[in-house]
Amino acid sequence: MKGKWYVQAIKYAILIFFTFIFAYPIFLMISSSFKTNMEIFTSPLSLPTSFNFDNYIEVWNVVNFSDYVWNSVFVTSVSVFTVLFVSSLAGFYLSRYKFKWNIYVLFFFMVGLMLPMKLAVIPMFMIMMNLNLLDTLFSLIFVYVAGGIPFAVFIFYGFFRTIPNELEDSARLDGCNDFQVYYKIVLPLMKPAISIVGIVNLVNVWNDFFYPLIFIRTDELSTIPLGMMTLFGEYDTEWNLLFAGLTIASVPMILAFLFASRQFMEGLTSGAVK
Question: Which is deepest, 35, 86, 141, 262, by most CB within 10 Å?
């Protein structure tokens, strides 16, 4: 019993230690968002002397942060939903229907996983310029959708193969066509895979700084990561506003993980078992 108690104590100590490592930076970010710039430098690790929302109000109204949030929400939502829709259809078709070039199509998506898209940033820039899409949000959407599809198809393809064909056969006997089988029978069983693909793409798109820096020129079309650069001055940085902006930017990520964490963990564990 003593040995078991000792092992449990070590496990809990390790869990508490890593929880502190991950949670303390979040605590510092939130507490610093309520401080003044001087307070951050004089007492960076302490709680704020007063909890006022002046920093949040100034960031939202003065720094055009509301525009950055709207641009990020629009680009992220359209990109993620497009990736989910297109990739789930492609994964369903590739897993259920065999045709001559099936294996080559799968290999094509695998190549998309192996090669980083940033290697093709110059050709992508030229394509966007020729299509008059530079300095538009749709240039970001096209890039994010193209970059997210290979991983999503790979995940959906693997999950679709684990669903018994008998479910689809019985649905077809009841009069369902292929799309109804996909929408009414198969898709509801894919919540873990949808959560994995959705959260991975959500985090990648929401936090991306590279592609907005390349394709966006006007401040009104900036996303949150690019817009945050306006808070960095040449000689001075408004750290209180920066922490307030970071806190606002982190809220959607935290909410998304809280709402989809169970399906996300189920998808990871079921994928590992299978």
Answer: 35
pLDDT, tens digit, for every residue of 67-102? 898 999 999 999 999 999 999 888 888 887 777 777
Contact criterion met (CB below 8 Å) for 92 and 179: no
Give the span between the Cα atoms of 226 and 97, in whole angstroms.
Answer: 43
Q: Which residues pair with 237 in a beta bridge?
A: 232
Q: How many CB atoms lie within 10 A of CB 117?
A: 16
Length of the chain: 274
Domain ranges of the chain: 62-273
Residue pointed to by tokens 């950055």: 68
| pLDDT tens readout for residues 212-248 | 999 998 888 999 888 888 777 656 777 888 888 888 8
For residue 245, give both structure tokens: 């902006």
* CATH 1.10.3720.10 matches 62-273: yes
Task: Locate 41 and state its tokens.
Answer: 């430098």
Rg (CA), the chain: 23
Q: Which two tokens stand for residue 8?
A: 């449990």
φ/ψ bin of 232: left (φ > 0), alpha (ψ from -120 to 50), beta (otherwise)? beta
- Of all helices (H) and strands (E), which one includes residue 120? none
* Nearest-angstrom CA–CA distance, 224 and 233: 17
